[in-house]
Design goal:
- The chain is mainly alpha-helical.
- The N terminus is likely disordered.
């Protein structure tokens, strides 16, 4: 993508890109869109988890936005609006800057620290710099690069204090043997993924307790209980699914790191995760609306913040409730030979993460671009799935949620409560964070 300009002129998704339409580079500058595609590329190759991806997308986009605010007086900084974000560099009023150059340098320097693939960032930056035709010996180049570097340094210092590093030093997660509790799931029975993600500092949320969505029904193995009926509904649906429902499940699968088994031989399969999927939808919107650099940065930042905080809140809930997954419950109490359509991710059931971040993203995008924004999501073309059309962002989020039921990996309670949790978070973020002056 970085070395061949023809790849930079397309928005076709081939594992790493996002859309099926083609918009020539001369028709619309794609600086920030290319950067978000590039880090998505790295995430696909390295199998980034959705949670890690949400963090990785958010910091670089905020870095770019904060630089662009200086060149766009009608916009407001995230400073003192996001938790812990208090110290940011300021441009020198006596100097001239190329705000776009400064913004992509800030994005570049933050991204290369988060995706661990510096060569990807270097290649794209060099290609974009050549496209801009900026004289590297000029004062404006020097000033712009200096500001971009200082902004990146400030954002990385802020990121260092979000407690992510501390989660990696915590002791191994201990599995609870209680009947209601989550157990590693087939086919690989992986260890619990990111059990301490709920301890990260949220970007905008002040209190996770305000967004808790506890399990609304009590665990039970009694065949007359509501819980059993919820589990049986997952089982029964798997027996009568239509081809359309199967396609929906697979379209929104977004499992970034799984193995496909032929007998006992695993073959790794990489694809984009739910966060990349929604950032792709976000890019489609920006391209359709021909947004300016600052509007693109604003949109990417708000959507990624909503997903990052959505996962923090969701995983706080997941490991508190520590609920058994449908595949384990069904095999234990309904049919020991049952197989779900999708591979169950390695963490507890409640709430559904995809439902949370889909609803949160949809809420943010709806406020920014309207309730009746129709679009075609072509993100799964490279995996053999046809594009799907939606009449609104919430329609897409609703389908993403129900896909988890069709796939056999969530009870409807996790989907319904996850959707509610995500909407609360998305609404909070878009209403509390002020990005434009009155």
């Amino acid at each position: 993508m970085c070395k061949k300009r023809m790849l930079r002129t397309s928005i076709v998704i081939c594992c790493i890109c996002f859309f099926g339409n083609v918009i020539p580079l001369h028709a619309q500058k794609l600086w920030l869109h290319e950067w978000n595609r590039e880090i998505s590329k790295a995430m696909v190759i390295d199998g980034f988890s959705p949670m890690l991806s949400s963090r990785t997308f958010t910091y670089p986009n905020i870095a770019a936005y904060e630089v662009l605010v200086y060149g766009n007086p009608g916009y407001l900084s995230f400073k003192k609006q996001l938790n812990g974000l208090v110290n940011l560099p300021k441009p020198d009023s006596k100097k001239k800057y190329n705000w776009t150059l400064s913004a992509i340098e800030a994005f570049n320097k933050v991204a290369e620290q988060l995706i661990y693939r510096k060569e990807y960032c270097d290649n794209l930056f060099d290609a974009q710099l050549k496209e801009m035709g900026i004289d590297k010996t000029s004062e404006i180049y020097k000033n712009s690069m200096e500001l971009g570097d200082k902004m990146a340094e400030a954002i990385l210092a802020w990121a260092k204090n979000d407690f992510y590093a501390q989660t990696k030093a915590k002791p191994r997660y201990i599995i609870n043997s209680a009947p209601y509790a989550w157990q590693p799931t087939p086919p690989e029975f992986k260890s619990a993924l990111e059990p301490f993600w709920g301890t990260l500092r949220p970007f905008a949320l002040k209190s996770l307790s305000e967004f808790n969505c506890p399990l609304p029904i009590q665990f039970s193995t009694d065949t007359t209980s509501v819980f059993y009926k919820n589990a049986f509904a997952v089982y029964a649906k798997s027996k009568i699914m239509s081809e359309e429902e199967k396609q929906i499940a697979k379209f929104w699968d977004d499992n970034p790191d799984q193995n496909i088994f032929a007998g006992h031989i695993p073959t790794p399969r990489r694809q984009m995760n739910p966060v990349s999927h929604w950032m792709g939808i976000t890019q489609l919107v920006c391209l359709d609306k021909k947004t300016t650099d600052i509007e693109s940065a604003r949109t990417y930042s708000l959507v990624s913040i909503s997903m990052a905080d959505g996962f923090i809140s969701c995983f706080d809930q997941k490991y508190k409730s520590n609920l058994i997954r449908p595949v384990t419950y069904i095999k234990n109490y309904i049919d020991q030979d049952w197989e779900c359509l999708l591979v169950t991710p390695p963490f507890p059931e409640h709430t559904s993460g995809h439902s949370v971040i889909s609803s949160a993203s949809a809420s943010v995008l709806t406020v920014l671009y309207g309730n009746n924004f129709s679009f075609t999501d072509s993100s799964e073309i490279s995996f053999g799935y046809k594009p799907r059309k939606f009449n609104s962002f919430h329609d897409a989020a609703k389908e993403a949620g129900i896909s988890r039921f069709y796939g056999g990996i969530h009870y409807m309670t996790a989907i319904d409560e996850g959707s509610r949790q995500g909407k609360l978070i998305g609404d909070y973020i878009i209403n509390q964070i002020k990005t434009k002056k009155d």
